[in-house]
Amino acid sequence: xxxxxxxxxxxxxxxxxxxxxxxxxxxxxxxxxxxxxxxxxxxxxxxxxxxxxxxxxxxxxxxxxxxxxxxxxxxxxxxxxxxxxxxxxxxxxxxxxxxxxxxxxxxxxxxxxxxxxxxxxxxxxxxxxxxxxxxxxxxxxxxxxxxxxxxxxxxxxxxxxxxxxxxxxxxxxxxxxxxxxxxxxxxxxxxxxxxxxxxxxxxxxxxxxxxxxxxxxxxxxxxxxxxxxxxxxxxxxxxxxxxxxxxxxxxxxxxxxxxxxxxxxxxxxxxxxxxxxxxxxxxxxxxxxxxxxxxxxxxxxxxxxxxxxxxxxxxxxxxxxxxxxxxxxxxxxxxxxxxxxxxxxxxxxxxxxxxxxxxxxxxxxxxxxxxxxxxxxxxxxxxxxxxxxxxxxxxxxxx
Amino acid sequence: xxxxxxxxxxxxxxxxxxxxxxxxxxxxxxxxxxxxxxxxxxxxxxxxxxxxxxxxxxxxxxxxxxxxxxxxxxxxxxxxxxxxxxxxxxxxxxxxxxxxxxxxxxxxxxxxxxxxxxxxxxxxxxxxxxxxxxxxxxxxxxxxxxxxxxxxxxxxxxxxxxxxxxxxxxxxxxxxxxxxxxxxxxxxxxxxxxxxxxxxxxxxxxxxxxxxxxxxxxxxxxxxxxxxxxxxxxxxxxxxxxxxxxxxxxxxxxxxxxxxxxxxxxxxxxxxxxxxxxxxxxxxxxxxxxxxxxxxxxxxxxxxxxxxxxxxxxxxxxxxxxxxxxxxxxxxxxxxxxxxxxxxxxxxxxxxxxxxxxxxxxxxxxxxxxxxxxxxxxxxxxxxxxxxxxxxxxxxxxxxxxxxxxxxxxxxxxxxxxxxxxxxxxxxxxxxxxxxxxxxxxxxxxxxxxxxxxxxxxxxxxxxxxxxxxxxxxxxxxxx
Lengths: 399, 480
Prior knowledge:
The structure holds two protein chains of two kinds.
Chain A: E1 10-16, H1 27-42, E2 51-55, H2 68-74, E3 81-84, H3 90-104, E4 110-116, H4 135-138, H5 144-159, H6 163-181, H7 195-199, E5 203-205, E6 208-209, E7 219-226, H8 228-233, E8 240-249, H9 253-256, H10 266-279, H11 284-287, E9 290-292, H12 298-307, H13 316-321, H14 338-341, H15 349-362, E10 375-384, E11 387-397
Helix pairs in contact in A: 1-2, 3-15, 6-12
Chain B: E1 3-10, E2 14-17, H1 18-25, E3 39-42, H2 49-60, E4 71-75, H3 86-93, E5 101-105, H4 111-122, E6 129-135, H5 144-148, E7 152-159, E8 165-174, E9 180-181, E10 190-191, H6 194-216, E11 226-228, H7 235-243, H8 266-275, E12 283-289, E13 292-300, H9 312-318, E14 321-323, H10 326-332, H11 352-357, H12 359-364, E15 366-370, E16 376-377, E17 395-399, E18 404-413, E19 423-429, E20 435-439, E21 453-464, E22 470-479
Parallel strand pairs in B: 2-14, 4-5, 4-6, 11-12
Antiparallel strand pairs in B: 1-7, 1-8, 2-3, 6-7, 8-13, 9-10, 12-13, 15-16, 15-17, 18-19, 18-21, 19-20, 21-22
Helix pairs in contact in B: 2-3, 6-7
């Protein structure tokens, strides 16, 4: 493989707004909230930033196009600002841009900031959206839960899993995130929920009930990256470095060719394999300490844990029910509450996941702090199971 | 010898229970009690006269090639478009465009027979002509028409080879006797008194015309084996037959008990009903009344018994689901101002340039087949979808509308806006290869499961009310 990015970039500082229904704030206020924490944590001055990447995904009316909204909101010193959009992977995409700038030597300090202000649309759930004018003429008139729900029907058929077993397993996924989110003051939903409530919730798109769907939240998250050498020279300890950044995008084989059975994410399998290779990880089930994965829907997380090569294909639901991914399990997943409870402001999510990793490595995760994590992995999935963008970031202690 | 060479029909799956309609309206219109029995056909929310005509035409063309059709007449009084050729949409959906004369016929309840006369005349030189008729008439709440009307379609292929019913003759009179009308500014019919229509209209206009037709065909009334004459007054056809010396046993059932009157299509719907069982030598007389009369006389040939099987009227009638929810009927016909929610506000503007470029794909469900690796795919794209091929510019058009598909994955979505929630959709795969994410229609929960068989059907996808009702059509999957 190409030389990769392992240990070429360090996270100098991070910030994250409170996620939730932020009726008090617009996108600008959320951006500033995350940025203030981030720049203070980094210890540098805004004038030292060489470049910035800005991510939003849905409904550009909230901030508008281009890099201008970020530059104007933060009053950046006329540096290059790139606006990125790659659906739910947008936040990780902004981080990737900033990291590559630093790794290339083009920038010493680069900012990545993602935001989404969803609660000004007037209704719950994500606003409707379609592909271009051609897709609008033929593609099924679906929603995000409807598209992801199909993972469940295909997974049950592919692995001969009963409806009740699957429903219990995906219910456990949500139960776990609620348990974790309850310990996170920045999370949108901070309430533990009983299994019965989850299993008996109203159906959104069968078999996904209300509690199988992540929160629709407002929020922003930011990172400033530099080289490990510069971080050290600035007197930083507990340096967190980037081990791998991978992105895999569907080329249409899943949606158009009969080789895919609908029960897994083709792109996640590819991206995670490449990421392990880039990071030098041989046995992820033994080496990765924690995951933040794209749990837009409970079934997505379950299937993703197989596609990340942690659970065996068709066995993920058993690992979930065994508590393997619980806070006190072998590899905690969504220790911060995940998209399910921390919330899912699309453009911010990838950076929010990295924020949790960063806190955990620094021992600043409060009541949900894990014991001595070494390697953390984040994963985003944009689009639908049949056509998507899958992004992976692996970060860890810089030795 | 010119005549009919094939027939087809279409009836929507839903059957509205008339008692349920009466129960909802009897507080206001107790007089409808006599009509509160049986059921009428009820179009799904995604059906209109175009989609029904497409289905009837496909049924008709079971045994024939669409590309042989040289002219296409589409009769209706409920054409979805006033200015845009409705017959042209049907032609494209059937994948016929080249060398096709497409024409809309309307304006009267005898539009179906007028179209049939035109089709027969157009095919005299041997070029097959397709005649499709469909109606989906609206009626005011608590009206007799609401109970009497039905939604449906028929299609007839006219030609000179393997004729199943040869044209003996036809006769028409046209006179502006206005029994009912529908103006440009309303959705509903307005009618004059029934007794006047019967005594001054039917009784004075029909018998002389029938007698003239019999004379022209050198037949006597007693020679007619099947007398087809739609009317909202069930006694009238019998009366007319009697006056003209046609035996009472020849008068065909109006199909009122389970179907209802399908408007401009009904004479042809009844003709299909007759052809399904007619024997060689039978004489069929079709009479359609509407500001005059059209009369056609056919003689059934031995070829009728050899016509390959199709669903026909009986087949579509057998595919049936009772609907007792009158509110659903009103909602499907946009006669109930439901709170649809914000998701219904999504802009449905159609890029007409895109539709034009991709019309074979969208209206004809024509995908691609790779010349290099043989992979079937939808949509047809510049580069082959097969991960082991990716050949460039290698795909030839491949019709998929007639292929069966299977459900690979599915959901019932209660979040998305649908006029009939939950919205069923999922990934469908074709055994020949090819797949796409498809809306499902005409289905119940228990029919939707992984592996279930589906057939493709031409339906309304969206109605762009912001731009005056531009309907977008595409194919949906329905349980076989």
